[in-house]
Amino acid sequence: MDYTAVIGLEVHAQLRTKSKLFCGCSTEFGGSPNRNTCPVCLGMPGVLPVLNRRVVEYTVMMGLATHCRIAEESVFARKNYFYPDLPKGYQISQYEKPVCEDGWIEVPVRGGVKRIGITRIHMEEDAGKLVHESGFDMSRASFVDFNRACVPLIEIVSEPDIRSPEEARSYMQTLRDIVVYLGICDGNMEEGSLRCDANISVMPKGADTFGTRTEIKNMNSFRFLHQALEYEIDRQIEVVEGGGRVVQETRLFDSDRGVTVSMRGKEEAHDYRYFPEPDLVPLRIDGDWISRARENIPELRSEKIHRYITDLDLPAYDAEVLTGDRAIADFFEAVVEAGAHPKAASNWVMGEFIRLVKDRGPEAGRISPVQVARIIALVDSQTISTSAAKEVFEEIFETGRDPERVIEEKGLTQVSDEGALREEVRKVLEDHPDEAAQFRAGKEKILGFLVGRVMKATKGKANPKMVNEILRDLLSK
What we know:
The chain is built from 15 helices and 16 strands. It has helices at 53-65, 165-182, 222-241, 287-295, 301-310, 316-323, 326-337, 342-360, 369-380, 386-399, 403-410, 418-431, 433-440, 446-457, 464-475, and strands spanning 3-14, 69-70, 73-74, 76-80, 90-94, 100-109, 112-125, 129-134, 140-145, 152-158, 194-204, 214-219, 249-254, 259-265, 275-276, 283-284. The model has no long low-confidence stretch (mean pLDDT 90). It is α+β, with helices and mostly antiparallel strands and 477 residues long.
């Protein structure tokens, strides 16, 4: 029997605010344990939370970018459960009245795009972190770091519209593009800034009743998400075809073994005993505030890709690469604005610029978009060759110096004097009569050898296009 997977994702994105959701403690990652804490985020008796306005702004921006309806009034709720890294014994979240509801995004899938519904986007605080260590006597100990407690999150809950691990991965990647382009989350999955829970079930193909679902918790890479879903689909099908019943439970993905393992029984909403948070009044957002938030939404990646292809006439591959990092896209656009042809700018940014950024880090780059455009113009005017331009590019990336000054100091100006080049070509033909005869006999490939000899003789300064033309002219006589 063929089966269909039914998948819904709950994505948690840590917001890029300087302070936490309900207090002024820093959200900085990597500090010493329990350094960024206070009585509020530790849940001490008698303290009161104060809502971070920037968190609301970011949440509304995400809702607008994903076509959600923004609620005029939303309410915080207490989600009650106990875990060692949850200092208050409950989590402040949202339940019945979230900020954003009924949205959607379109994600690329094989053969086109697919619209995935978004049930809700709500604000909540993060928990702390458990650190497990082994002592010299091989005993185990667990420590609690509350630095992350009360760090602001948004939870983005999809409709169960996803039907394969590939679609789930594409959905997650699209969400990451959105939060990064909005500037509300750094999208760093390794540090836990973006992570995902997946609800999954299987049903016979053509059926309209969903099977019993399981939840896979805390996946922090696209690859792990894909692998976990593949394994869980196969596991559930095997259980059903073996005559068993899928148990509703929460599972973890063991990335070392590539399997999911049972963690606990799956909780329902009533297990958390939600009730309105008594220390926070309802949140009311007026239309003018939403309009201002809408004005702050930049061009998103999908829109940028479309514009690069249609308006700048770039290949789809170029558009995908250039927009993969917003900073790279911004740099490319600045090069074009400085006067470079879009395709030439794309070639240099995708080639030399990205290579140097990856090799030496973005902070090492001192080259400006105007300088890149100038290098492209110097190549177009045949002042320098492409190979010389790469040498100049690397020098300016490191130093930020003027391109013309670097060219002058290094003696990289290209020789385009036809008389001088003809003399060099004649010398090469005189020194290589056999190769000249082979070319005249129809061996076209030998031309590359002869061009190379001329370039060597001129120390790479000869204009290769003119060398080709002069060689063909003299060899035809």
